[in-house]
Design brief:
Keywords: Membrane, Transmembrane, Transmembrane helix. By secondary structure, this protein is mainly α. The chain is flat, with a radius of gyration of 17 Å.
């Protein structure tokens, strides 16, 4: 089984969930993440929404996306990323899952609010608003992880 470096695992997982698992020889898990990526991506029309958003048509992106399917994406995506990161570490890191979990929570919240949040009468949309919500999710997750490590260390 090949060991993948933590940064390599994160970057490949950002590109395509399941790739780091395949690179490290965890084939069942890797193919499961790939299958889920294709399933949710296809059913939610995610790629079409990404394309429309980058072309500036965030309103149409919000209309064509299937929110019922897309709501699964942040948790699958962040779990696959955490799994790749966790498996790349030489030894287990305390509470390493917390920033990933909070990023998934916040991205999901961003997705829920994406049909109504505008800036200067311009809809941010189902792609860019959830992406923006990653930042407070990671900040909250790293902060909570820091507190838990301090509490555990003082016991």
């Amino acid at each position: 089984m090949k060991k993948v470096a933590p940064l390599e695992a994160i970057l490949w997982s950002i590109a395509f969930p399941g790739f780091p698992q395949l690179l490290s020889g965890k084939y069942i898990k890797g193919f499961l993440f790939l299958f889920l990526e294709f399933l949710v991506n296809g059913q939610s029309h995610f790629n079409k929404a990404i394309m429309l958003s980058f072309l500036g048509d965030t309103r149409l992106a919000g209309e064509i996306v299937n929110y019922q399917w897309l709501m699964f994406y942040p948790c699958i995506y962040m779990f696959a990323m955490w799994d790749a990161y966790k498996n790349s570490l030489e030894r287990e890191s305390q509470f390493s899952y917390i920033p990933f979990a909070f990023a998934a929570y916040f991205v999901t919240i961003g997705l829920m609010y994406s049909p109504i949040v505008t800036i200067k009468n311009r809809l941010i949309g189902p792609i860019f608003l959830p992406i923006l919500f990653i930042i407070p999710g990671l900040v909250a997750g790293f902060f909570i992880r820091y507190i838990l490590i301090k509490i555990r260390g003082s016991m």
